[in-house]
Write a structure and sequence with these properties.
Layout lengths: L3 E5 L5 H11 L3 E6 L23 H12 L5 E5 L7 H5 L4 E4 L4 H14 L3 E7 L2 E7 L8 H4 L11 H4 L3 H19 L8 E6 L4 E6 L31
Parallel strand pairs: 1-2, 1-4, 2-3, 4-5
Antiparallel strand pairs: 5-6, 6-7, 7-8
Amino acid sequence: MLPMVLLIGAGGVGTPAALALALSGRCRLRLVDDDEVELSNLHRQILYTEADLGRSKLEALKGALEARAVGVEIEAIPGRFLPETALELLAGVSLVVDGADNFATRFLASDACGLAGVPVVHGAALQWRATCFVAGSEGKRPCYRCLFEDLPAGPAPDCGTAGVLGPVCGVSGGLAAEAALRWLGGDRSQAGTMASFDGSTGRFRRIEVRPRRGCLLCGEEPGIRGLERARYTGAACGA
């Protein structure tokens, strides 16, 4: 049986990642999102059209993928990736692609995957910049909390407030899918690395992220042993 990949978020990063994974024929997909298609989505969420406006993104995405990748097995679960549902959604999953658009969900995905021993690829895009960070499994370091210690103290910009160039989302989704397929194929070389693309200059770079001493998730004395809701105030599946 093909491995199962959980995709969090059916938006600007999630749609190109889902398309690449579905067409690869190397995995099954489990999709989770609770949003509807809006006109402002169409410039970057490449599998939706004006005919999808007002529809569930999950319904529209599942249909678009099945039309392009005949035979792909897709499980669409409407709802949010939340502390109460995270571990259930991870059941039977070989790898997670995190395409959320908010820090609360990214940290929750990181913590849930760390506790469950599931590798996770974090894709993000904002304004001109696309990023992709690959965290390993089974206690391997570094993790997302080594990169960003904790949630921002105040409101953080997202695509809705700061804007994003549509093709930059495609770059992030492509990087995330490529990293996921490498991992599923046994190539762990990208674990612990951050890839970034600056659309304003066309520059691409990849750096190794060092494990952070005292990391709450993967440090010598980890402090995160469960998914308490208070730690992820405002967590929601977004894209």
